[in-house]
């Protein structure tokens, strides 16, 4: 009975709200009257000036006349606006003070308590209804002997439960909406008073309320559950490392080392992410890195190359170090882009699954580079080159800035260009994209070309970071790392879903995890197990989200 007394009807709620609306309404009328010849007229005249400027039917003289008259009136309106500004501010302060003093205590808190009581009563009624339906079902089944009749009764029972559940959820949502509307009504009043110019605190209060209103625990766990687990793993590693290795894990030096290692990998992950957006992938990334490392090392080698390519010894030592580095970058980009375009062509033209085309690419590249170089490692590059392109600024490795630039460029392409919008469209629904006039072939080829350019940059940067030592075997497993980083970062294999921020997060997570496990002395093979589990969990959660949407 106590709960019922708390619950108020819609009519009672309206009675509670009426004096508040009336008080603020009277103030609003005064403000509106003051704004007629001030703010309202200023906005109206500004619109008239804008319309006159865009009106092609008017002559230049007519435009100038209209604009001139509007500007004269605008000056008067602005003067009136300025004269009334202080008075309007006092009225707004009066209304907001009244709302602050009376709104919650005399209206919202009562409605909120009513809603909580309604929710509790609804939950209780629902549980009672389920119990009654179950009891009714048991009695009905006990009186039946025919298997088909029992089956029909079970089906009827399930339908009744489903209907009851739907009705219950609808009722709970109505109660939730009522409470939310009661809270937001205050900001509706403030919106009219302030002409949508909220204070910072008012904006934050609305944002928090909207977050609570739309929050769903299941969806939150689908979206962030994996990150929560990974954070817990890192916390555990931070606790364990000082006891096992007598050193702290996440020191400034270690964090900078992680970011330094992640920088070349960032290029690869950004390239693969574009392909995954198209429901594709790239298994040749690791071999692209190997090819790029060999190419860059040969060109930037410190002196005459000790190894041969198809039996030929290359010597670029006569060129200036910076020129050799730029040449190496260009050749790396050329090679990786050509091979990426080849895989992309078969996907775009013949609808070949990218798993097949990129796997073929992987085999061709590895076989070609290994045969050409006999699988040997090409020593160190000119030591002056790293100092030119990735110098140390104190303790800060400048290589990180290369990754930052790549992130910014790819973000711009994805979010601010027609190609980026088409990329999402084709990934989401290629048939619909084609019907709307988007060339699926061009978008697919564009994604592979962009990926190839990024692979070239990434392999070159890795060569500079490692001071050479390029070989055909270098980069093995990097394809899986890049794909895993994208998946963990939320780039969905269903296509058309993914953000650059997610890719960056995924690369940092995997690099940090590998670095942490290495510090702890965990065997590389066991590290693969960790990565595999994380990938499996990420894809599972992605599939669950997709199932929920369907």
Describe the structure.
The chain is built from 19 helices and 2 strands. It is mostly helical and 550 residues long. Helix 9 runs parallel beside helix 11.
Unreliable stretches covering 5 or more consecutive residues: none
CATH architectural name of the largest domain: Orthogonal Bundle
Hey, roughly how much beta strand do the residues contain? under 5%
Named CATH topology of the largest domain: ABC transporter involved in vitamin B12 uptake, BtuC
Instruction: Determine the fraction of residues in helical runs and give it as a percent range.
Output: over 70%
**What assembly state would you assign to the polypeptide chains in this entry?**
single chain
Biggest β-sheet: count, sense, barrel? 2 strands, antiparallel
Q: Quickly name the level 1 CATH class of the largest domain.
A: Mainly Alpha
Short synopsis of the structure:
By secondary structure, this protein is an all-alpha fold.
């Amino acid at each position: 009975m106590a709960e019922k007394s708390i619950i108020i009807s819609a009519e009672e709620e309206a009675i509670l709200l009426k004096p508040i609306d009336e008080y603020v309404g009277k103030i609003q009328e005064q403000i509106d009257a003051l704004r007629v010849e001030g703010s309202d007229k200023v906005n109206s005249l500004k619109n008239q000036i804008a319309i006159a400027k865009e009106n092609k039917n008017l002559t230049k003289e007519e435009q100038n006349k209209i604009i001139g008259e509007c500007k004269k009136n605008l000056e008067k309106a602005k003067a009136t606006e300025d004269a009334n500004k202080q008075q309007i501010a006092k009225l707004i302060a009066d209304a907001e003070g009244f709302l602050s003093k009376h709104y919650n205590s005399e209206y919202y808190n009562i409605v909120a308590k009513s809603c909580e009581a309604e929710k509790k009563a609804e939950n209780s009624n629902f549980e009672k209804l389920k119990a009654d339906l179950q009891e009714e079902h048991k009695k009905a089944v006990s009186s039946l002997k025919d298997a088909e009749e029992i089956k029909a009764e079970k089906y009827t029972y399930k339908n009744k439960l489903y209907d009851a559940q739907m009705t219950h959820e609808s009722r709970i949502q109505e109660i939730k909406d009522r409470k939310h509307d009661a809270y937001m009504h205050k900001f509706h009043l403030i919106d009219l008073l302030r002409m949508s110019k909220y204070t910072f605190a008012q904006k934050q209060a609305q944002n928090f309320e909207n977050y609570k209103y739309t929050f769903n625990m299941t969806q939150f766990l689908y979206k962030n559950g994996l990150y929560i687990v990974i954070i817990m793993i890192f916390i555990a590693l931070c606790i364990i490392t000082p006891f096992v290795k007598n050193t702290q894990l996440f020191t400034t030096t270690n964090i900078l080392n992680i970011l330094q290692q992640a920088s070349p990998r960032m290029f690869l992950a950004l390239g693969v992410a574009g392909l995954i957006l198209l429901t594709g992938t790239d298994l040749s990334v690791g071999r692209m890195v190997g090819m790029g490392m060999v190419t860059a090392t040969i060109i930037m080698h410190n002196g005459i190359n000790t190894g041969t390519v198809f039996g030929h010894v290359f010597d670029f030592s006569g060129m200036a170090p910076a020129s050799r580095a730029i040449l190496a970058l260009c050749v790396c980009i050329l090679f990786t882009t050509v091979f990426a375009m080849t895989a992309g062509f078969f996907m775009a033209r013949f609808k070949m699954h990218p798993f097949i085309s990129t796997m073929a690419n992987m085999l061709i590249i590895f076989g070609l580079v290994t045969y050409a170089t006999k699988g040997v490692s090409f020593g160190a590059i000119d030591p002056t080159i790293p100092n030119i392109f990735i110098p140390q600024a104190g303790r800060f490795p400048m290589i990180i800035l290369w990754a930052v630039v790549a992130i910014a460029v790819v973000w711009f392409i994805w979010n601010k260009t027609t190609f980026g919008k088409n990329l999402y469209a084709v990934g989401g629904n290629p048939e619909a994209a084609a019907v709307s006039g988007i060339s699926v072939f061009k978008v697919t080829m564009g994604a592979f070309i962009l990926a190839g350019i990024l692979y070239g940059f990434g392999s070159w940067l890795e060569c500079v970071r490692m001071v050479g030592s390029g070989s055909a075997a270098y980069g093995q497993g990097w394809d899986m790392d890049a794909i895993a980083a994208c998946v963990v970062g939320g780039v969905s294999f269903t296509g058309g879903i993914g953000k650059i921020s997610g890719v960056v997060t995924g690369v940092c997570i995997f690099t940090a995890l590998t670095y942490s496990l290495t510090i702890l002395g965990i065997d590389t093979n066991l590290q693969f197990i960790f990565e595999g589990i994380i990938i499996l969990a990420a894809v599972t959660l992605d599939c669950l989200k997709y199932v929920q949407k369907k």
